[in-house]
Design brief:
Elements: H1 50-62, H2 67-81, H3 93-101, E1 111-114, E2 134-137, H4 140-148, E3 164-165, E4 171-173, H5 180-192, E5 200-215, E6 218-229, H6 234-239, E7 245-251, H7 263-281, E8 292-295, E9 301-312, H8 315-322, H9 348-358, H10 364-369, H11 387-390, E10 391-392, H12 395-420, H13 422-433, H14 445-459, H15 465-480, E11 486-487, H16 488-504, H17 506-510, H18 520-523, H19 528-535, H20 543-547, H21 557-579, E12 601-604, E13 611-615, H22 627-633, H23 639-650, E14 672-674, E15 676-682, E16 693-704, E17 707-710, E18 712-716, E19 727-740, E20 743-755, E21 767-771, E22 785-789, E23 793-797, E24 799-801, H24 817-820, E25 824-826, H25 832-837
Parallel strand pairs: 5-9, 9-10
Antiparallel strand pairs: 1-2, 2-7, 3-4, 4-11, 5-6, 6-7, 8-9, 12-16, 13-15, 14-19, 15-16, 16-17, 18-19, 18-23, 19-20, 20-21, 20-22, 21-25, 24-25
Helix pairs in contact: 12-13, 12-14, 12-15, 15-16
């Protein structure tokens, strides 16, 4: 073969396959392509291949390995490969970071703008007037394009607003596109411009929360702004990292304490906030009136039109957003002195009318209508946007942390002080503390949620029924509004709990504990029914979603921004590789039940099922395999008879007549014992995966962190009934499996609990159960136990003791609760899934 003399000889390329041989015996006409310069792109780019991508993803995203540890790992790797004349995948941590930075997909770089210091400032200008402020942001238009191009959302995505009617012709509200807001705004868009016909409506969802980060000049406070779109289903927004994206850090000017109440300084901070939001979102303006083309998760290209939707934030920032006076409501015109009186909705039109009539008339607008006439709200810059109608309730900060922990729990303590004296009240609170936590100096949202799970049972013996009903109504409200789906019946239940709460909180007034209930955070509960109809289920618009997107591994602002950008790129590349068929879908497999290092509960990115319970992968080795020996080993001498009875029923030979042991099938296989099982169930109201799935671990082990642990669960016993009447509570004594005639039987030995009465306890609203024992005189202390199939179990259950008036011993351990108490509450406040099914 002749070679052009102008081209040097190609160097040898290591690691490449030889040129495929040419088979001259085959007479068919065909083309044989050169294997190297083939014009086939490297789909793993910028990585060399699958291993390098997975290594990067593992080190940077999954285990968050430090730079020093990455360098050491690469040095050891290179040292080991020197004998093969090969190198480590990366030279050092910087090479790994550079590879991530070269990823092209999912890119939305951070930008910065800075305030301009006026040139005409006098020599006596204050320090805060002479200081520039930086605002970091990403282009929201680019963020929307990235979300829309993410194929992970293909099955969790709506292309148009809709009205959901059930079989009874009742309207249902769940995801954002099922709400009234999107339908009404889509109508306005079409009526104003018929050329928008067939364009896809995209409602922008914004949330913000105050955070502290490190910068060159020290710690600075920022408003961290989050961004999403309403087309995503709530489950996708809650369960997918790229469903909610940090988009901006708004500067919060700070100065000496002497300026804290300076009107000019406070006005400057307000103006900076609104002008920053308007500048960041301005790239969306053109597509708010004229549609643009975007690729969607299903791969199709569509005309889309943007619209500002709900804004999620806590009350202090709602005051800033709405330009109102602290203590007033940002959504209605109720006076600060009596927030719960009927009032009209605030709106831009209402504000403009008052400005036209009263602007320049002293403090009339400020004092009488709670309007700051010096602030131009950012929403005035965008079509159809009205901040008063966009503000969404914040369940975590306003209701759980604000109203429950800061109001009701404190009022209960004040009541106990008034009734029992401060010393006795402190002793009671110490007794209550032992059931959920140690005393915290700073409460987080998770601490408040943990308190809600046990609070009613813990205080029921110290409070009158009226206060207990107040607490129960409020907690029922908190759990109801976290449901993932609402109809007119459910909305009525929400309104009823609000009415009951307002009725029974008068007990605190009568007891002299609290006289003023005009509290802005607590007042927001009256707006929840309208918010559900306007924006869909609140669990898709809660600050707990944005809080879960905080980057906790880094403190400095530059590290936070760069880390966030790199994580987004890795996730976007993974989605592309899945689309190319090179990776499995990003839905994580069910958690390994035998991995004791994993959390006992959490989200599962799996396909939707109502409920499924699976034994751990690996059986325990120290248990006898023989059925008789196993029964003796675990203290259950009747285990063989119970298993035979279970198998007899499983084989379809069950009968209501007495069954004799000799009629039972003989079990000869080995028995495998397990210390845990995984329950997976559909629970979109809790933190769950993209399909609404969640898991929890059910344990039955003689030693868990040094103490025995035998969890309780709910077993389905009567599917014709509703709620808890269709179930029974059981204590899991043994988890095991065996084979018979080629069929595997996963089972559990359970101790049954019996319901007390035919309705929940009227004081707490919770069902009461007690352990069931045989009534026979000669077996009075024998527990009612049986073997049931694992499929009978629905999920774990949280049984809270009926404590009684006596205090717990200071060193009492919770692992002894089932043995030391004779009655228990079925806590429907354990999680939102339990509240729905019980």
């Amino acid at each position: 073969m002749a070679i052009d003399e102008g081209i040097d000889e190609m160097p040898a390329v290591s690691g490449l396959p030889p040129t495929p041989p040419i088979n001259l015996s085959n007479s068919q006409d065909r083309k044989i392509y050169y294997p190297y310069l083939s014009a086939i792109p490297n789909v793993w780019s910028p990585f060399n291949g699958e291993v390098q991508f997975h290594l990067t993803d593992f080190l940077f995203r999954k285990v968050k390995m430090s730079q020093r540890d990455i360098d050491e790992l690469m040095d050891l790797w290179a040292l080991d490969l020197q004998k093969h004349n090969d190198d480590a995948p990366f030279d050092n941590h910087q090479a790994l970071y550079n590879a991530i930075d070269e990823i092209c997909v999912g890119s939305a770089p951070w930008k910065c703008f800075q305030t301009i210091i006026p040139l005409d400032l006098g020599a006596d200008a204050l320090d805060w007037q002479k200081q520039p402020y930086q605002v970091w942001f990403r282009d929201p238009n680019m963020i929307i394009a990235n979300i829309l191009a993410n194929h992970d959302f293909e099955k969790e995505f709506d292309t148009a607003p809709y009205v959901h009617l059930d079989g009874n012709n009742q309207q249902r509200w769940s995801d954002f596109m099922s709400d009234n807001y999107s339908w009404r705004h889509a109508t306005q868009i079409y009526e104003q411009n018929h050329n928008t016909k067939r364009a896809m409506y995209i409602g922008v969802i914004i949330g913000s929360d105050k955070t502290t980060v490190s910068v060159a000049t020290g710690n600075m406070e920022y408003y961290l702004v989050y961004f999403s779109i309403g087309n995503l289903h709530n489950s996708a927004r809650r369960g997918h990292r790229n469903g909610v994206v940090p988009i901006a850090f708004l500067a919060i000017p700070k100065s000496d304490q002497k300026y804290d109440h300076d009107l000019a300084f406070r006005l400057f901070k307000k103006k900076l906030y609104h002008q920053s939001l308007a500048a960041i979102l301005c790239s969306l303006q053109p597509a708010m009136t004229v549609p643009v083309v975007r690729q969607c998760p299903d791969g199709f290209y569509r005309w889309v039109i943007y619209d500002l939707g709900p804004y999620i934030t806590d009350y202090p920032e709602q005051v800033l957003l709405a330009g109102i006076v602290q203590g007033w409501c940002a959504q209605c015109t109720a006076p600060a002195s009596n927030l719960d009186v009927p009032a009209d909705r605030r709106s831009h039109a209402h504000t403009e009318a008052l400005l036209d009539a009263l602007a320049g008339h002293g403090d009339a607008l400020w004092d009488n209508y709670s309007i700051d006439e010096d602030i131009l709200l950012f929403t005035f810059s965008f079509p159809r946007a009205d901040i008063h109608k966009m503000i969404s309730s914040d369940l975590l900060h306003q209701i759980i942390k604000g109203s429950f922990k800061d109001h009701l729990v404190e009022w209960v303590f004040d009541y106990l002080v008034a009734k029992e004296g401060e010393a006795r009240a402190n002793a009671i609170m110490d007794d209550i503390d032992r059931w959920y936590s140690r005393r915290f100096k700073q409460w987080t949202g998770n601490d408040s949620k943990a308190l809600m799970k046990v609070y009613l049972a813990a205080v029921s013996d110290y409070l009158p029924e009226s206060i207990m009903r107040c607490l129960s109504a409020f907690m029922d409200f908190c759990y109801l509004v976290r449901w993932s789906d609402f109809d007119e019946t459910t909305l009525k239940q929400v309104r009823d709990t609000i009415q009951q709460f307002h009725h029974y909180y008068e007990a605190f007034r009568l007891a002299g504990v609290h006289k003023d209930f005009s509290l802005p955070r607590q007042h927001t509960i009256v707006h929840y029914p309208s918010h559900i109809m306007e924006f869909g289920a609140p669990n898709g618009l809660c600050s707990s979603i944005t809080e879960s997107r905080h980057i906790t591994a880094y403190n400095t602002l530059s590290q936070m921004l760069l880390t966030n950008q790199r994580l987004d790129k890795l996730m976007a590349l993974r989605v592309d590789l899945v689309q190319c068929g090179l990776l499995e879908p990003s839905h994580a497999p069910p958690p390994d039940p035998f991995d004791t290092g994993m959390e006992d509960e959490g989200a599962v990115n799996g396909e939707r099922v109502i409920a499924e319970v699976l034994l751990a992968k690996t059986p325990e080795r120290l248990y006898p395999k023989n059925i008789k020996e196993l029964g003796q080993y675990v203290g259950q001498p009747d285990l063989q008879e119970l298993m035979q009875h279970f198998l007899y029923e499983q084989m379809g030979e069950g009968s209501s007549q007495p069954i004799y042991t000799e009629e039972h099938p003989n079990i000869t296989s080995q028995i495998s014992v397990f210390h845990s099982a995984i329950a997976m169930f559909y629970s979109p109201s809790d933190i769950s995966g993209t399909r609404g799935m969640r898991h929890e671990r059910i344990r039955a082990t003689p030693s868990w962190h040094g103490y025995p642990r035998y969890d309780c669960a709910l077993a389905m016993t009567n599917e014709r009934e509703q709620g808890f009447q269709a179930m029974s509570a059981v204590c899991i004594l043994l988890l095991f499996s065996f084979r018979h005639e080629g069929i595997e039987y996963p089972c559990t030995l359970v101790h049954w609990f019996k319901r007390h009465g035919h309705a929940p306890d009227p004081k707490t609203g919770m069902w009461i159960v007690w352990p069931e024992y045989w009534a026979c005189t000669h077996r009075v202390s024998s527990a009612v136990v049986s073997v049931i199939h694992l499929d009978t179990l629905l999920c774990g259950a949280h049984l809270m003791p009926v404590f009684g008036p006596k205090a717990l011993p200071p060193k009492f351990h919770y692992s002894r609760s089932l043995d030391c108490f004779s009655a228990f509450y079925i806590s429907r406040y354990a999680d939102h899934h339990m509240h729905e099914i019980v």
